[in-house]
Amino acid sequence: MTNALRLGLLLASLMVFLLILYTVIRRMLNIKYSIVWILWSLLSLLMAIFPEIFYSLSDLLSIQIPVNTVFLIMTALLYALTFYVYIMISKHNEEIIKLTYEISVLKKELEDLKKKQ
Amino acid sequence: MMKTLVVIPAYNEQDNIVRLMEDVESYGYDYLVINDCSRDSTKDLLIDNDIVHLDLPINLGIAGVTRVGFKYAKDRGYDCVICIDGDGQHLPEYMKDLIDEIEKGNDYVIGSRFVSEKKPVTLRMLGSRLLCLLIRLKTGKKVTDPTSGMRALGRRVIEDFAESMNFCAEPDALCHLLHRNFKIKEVQVAMKEREAGVSYFHNPLKSIYFMLAVSLSIIFIQ
Questions:
Q1: Which chain B residue has the Cα nearest residue A92?
Q2: Rounded Cα distance, A97 and B162, in Å
Q3: Could you tell me the CA-to-CA distances from B168 to A85, B160, B178, B207, B209 in Å, in that order?
Q4: B195: left (phi over 0), alpha (psi -120 to 50) or beta
């Protein structure tokens, strides 16, 4: 990795880390979902500070250019995170159907009661 | 006597719903119209005409609406649910034929247009044939009208459908049941062209997406 790339990574991951902390503190991001992001930005900070990890990892995986190892890990993490989001969406979808059902039944029962009076 | 509920999903059906409900009411079954957050005057019409209905606070789409109907039927202990579209294409006169078959011990009865009638050769029916083929390959069983939305459900199927989120639409739900050896029967019915409003399948992209989603669901999930 060139020094420019290293510096870029360092600055970017530092900014991401601060942005995430900011969004949590400003209550834009639920703390529950911020943990994974904080871990992730810490990981990229680590990558920027100690790129040697990636040199040896690249050797281990027979990847010629270390930056490709970075891409590989990032892509895999993104996949995992996106998949997790899809699972959450499905769960929320189910919950919304349940809530919508409960609300509509309550509305109906209220109307029926009003009519009886 | 079985406790039967007629479920009628309605989305922007102001031109059809009152006439349809007069017809449905004349058969004397319990019924439930589910207004899927219509943007026209469907809601007012339902209230003004004293039609039993649920008014959903958000738009769930057809799959969600039928789930709500099944949950309602399950909670109120109905033995049989029959689904009729709010657009008037399903004729209430055939409801009894479907319910009778549930009473005879079938789990799921489909109002099919093509039990004794021949399937016409149109683009839409080509899709229908493809789905029949897929279902046959997957389950080894023959069906004639997998996309029909007019169906009657027995108690076991109501409970299954109320909780499952694994269906895109009717064809893959049918495949799910076939695969699990529920007793399924098709009954000949006639359907009308829709009287007013626009079909979901008017949009070719949506049709393609529907076919793709349902096919993948049949092949890999059900």
A1: B165
A2: 11
A3: 20, 15, 16, 13, 11
A4: alpha
How is residue B187 written in tokens? 């009954």
Where in the sequence is the domain holding B70, given as residue range(s)?
Answer: 4-221
Of the candidates B198, B15, B22, B189, the one whose C-alpha atom is nearest the C-alpha of residue B91 is B189
How far apart CA B28 and CA B10 sit, in angstroms, is 20
What does the pLDDT profile of chain A (117 residues) look like in tens digits? 678 878 888 898 899 889 989 998 998 988 888 888 888 888 888 888 888 888 888 999 999 988 898 899 889 989 999 999 999 999 999 999 999 999 999 999 999 999 888
Q: CB count, 10 Å around CB of A22?
A: 11
Which CATH number is B203's domain given? 3.90.550.10
What is the DSSP annotation of B78-89? Answer: -SEEEE--TTS-
What is the token pair recorded at B179? 């695969």
B residues 158-187 lying closer than 8 A (beta carbon) to A: 165
Cα separation, A80 vs B178, whole angstroms:
34
Provide the number of structural domains found in chain B. Answer: 1
The reply to whether the predicted model has a pTM over 0.90 is no
Of the residues A88, A90, A94, A104, the best mutation for testing chain B's interface (the one with the most B CB atoms within 10 Å of its CB) is: A104
Of residues B68, B75, B165, nearest to A100 (C-beta): B68
- Judged on CB neighbours under 10 Å (0-12, 13-18, 19+), B88 is buried
Task: State the maximum Cα–Cα separation within chain B, in Å, rounded to a whole number.
Answer: 49
Is residue A95 classed exposed, middle or buried when 0-12, 13-18 and 19+ CB atoms within 10 A define those classes?
exposed
The two three-digit tokens of residue B164, written as one number: 């499952």
Query: Structure tokens of B114?
Result: 């093509």
At residue B204's C-alpha, the angle toward residues B200 and B206, to 5°, is 55
